Structures are given as C-alpha cells and as structure tokens.
Amino acid sequence: ELAGEDYVVVSGLARGIDGACHEGALPATIGVIASGIDIAYPPQHAKLQEQIAREGLLLAEQPPGTEPRGSHFPSRNRIIAGIAAGTLVVEAAPKSGSLITARLAGEAGREVMAIPGSPLDARSHGCNQLIREGAILVQSAEDVIELLAGFDGKPRSRVREPEPDFAAAPDDEVPASTLADLLSTAPVAIDELIRQTGSSPGAVHMALLELEIAGHLARHAGAKVSLAG
What we know:
By secondary structure, this protein is of the alpha/beta class. Helix content is about 40%, strand content about 15%. Belongs to the DprA/Smf family.
C-alpha cells in the first residue's frame, strides 16, 4: 500500500518481516545489508537480494567480499534509520535489533512509529514500550501516510535522548569485548567510557550498540549504561 502511494520501503533484508516488506514493495524498495554487496545474507534471500539490486536499490557499507559480522549490524541499522523519513516497528521482542533502529531514528529526528500488540505476546513488548516512550501508534498504511505527509525533517518523536557525535571513523573501532570488560551491573556514564578507552565518542557508541543488540547492555537515565542484569 505504501509503495502504491509513491513511498519507498527501506529495510535490512532479514528473515521474516524485512523480507515481506521488500517483496511487497518491489520495485519501490531499498535493501541495506550488513555484508559486502556481493554476499547474500541470509542465504535464503539470495534471489530477493538480486531482484532488489536489479529493480530497486541495494546498499552496503562494507567492501565487496566482506562476510557479515555482529559489529556490522549496528552500522546497517544506522543507515536504515538515517535514510528513511520514518521508522515503523511492526514486531519487536524486548531485545530486538529493531528497537536499536527506532532509537537511532529518533536521534536523527525521524518519525518513530510502532504497531501495538497484546501484552501477552513477547513479540509486541518492544513495540508497546516504544509507544510508552513517545513513538507514534499506527494501525494501518493510512496512518503512516498521514503522519509522513507533513514530515519536514524536524524531530517530533521523543524516543530517548540524542547522543552526540555518533558516527565513528572506520579506523577508530572499539571492540565490544573491551567495553564489556569495563562495565559492571552498576551504571557508568558513557563519557567515562570514552575517557577510559581514549577512543572517539562514535566508536564507543558503535560498540555499545553491538552489546545492546546482543542483549548484554542496559541503558539508564543520564546517558549511563551497565551490563544487563
């Protein structure tokens, strides 16, 4: 329906909802992958990836021949959040990577939307939490179109507070394991982690995202983080 109204659907070519979104929107779709442009991941989407490259647009930040690594997925999510006018989370368990994309979208001043679900269904917990934090509740394509019709690029969805200096230089990486060694269950300021590692804020944030996606990181008020209890 969105593609029929001249909207382009952006997603990450993952199994499930991602793949269905791409298939339903072709050719009006952009696939952002965590591997090199010539690597099909997941392998089940090889034909779909080729079709998107041929009829839509396929984007990859990693050089050709690069196999996907866990540290690549936060970067992929950042690209998805940045190039889309709005991010819609359809289903999300409490530790879903979709929640990372939603937070990045909010920090970038994009609209953040979520479809509510039963509190008895774990796949809806993330969506319901996003709505509690300020994401827009939507239930149809018409809701999305109405919301994005007046989009002017200015922040409106209040999903967490922005953290500055997000982008990291390619040669300034902090292994997630290094940060994990510095963390405990007691909250610590992200600025303190930046000071201890001597790395750029962007590099530290990328490593924190990797830990968060893996379910090892908890965020707290005041730009503080800790190991998930």
